[in-house]
Design a protein that fits this description.
The protein has 106 residues and is mainly alpha-helical. The protein contains four helices and no strands. Belongs to the Asterix family.
Length: 106
């Protein structure tokens, strides 16, 4: 085993463990995509709910998925889950229709 270690060209004292740069010292490293998608999802889901636009409701679901997929595990999930539930309710409410009263056959 020691003969194998002697043939190893790497220098043990030069090996450094990777430490990701902190976002506190450099705020440009933070990715704003989840926040923007969350905001867009809220706007589209409100349009889908208020105006009964199905395409707005589906775009809201899409934006919620993108926001969830791009978020970090350390972020608050309550806001993302509320945005996702709002977009799902916009889809459901846009497809619900008031039943028409039955007209007489004559």
């Amino acid at each position: 085993m020691s003969s194998n270690n002697m043939a190893d060209p790497r220098r043990q004292n030069k090996i450094l463990r990777y430490k990701p740069p902190s976002t506190d010292s450099n705020p440009t490293l933070e990715d704003p995509t989840p926040d923007y998608m969350n905001l867009l999802g809220m706007i589209f889901s409100m349009c889908g709910l208020m105006l009964k636009l199905k395409w707005c409701a589906w775009i809201a679901v899409y934006c919620s998925f993108i926001s969830f997929a791009n978020s970090r595990s350390s972020e608050d999930t309550k806001q993302m889950m509320s945005s996702f539930m709002l977009s799902i309710s916009a889809v459901v409410m846009s497809y619900l229709q008031n039943p028409q009263p039955m007209s007489p056959p004559w």
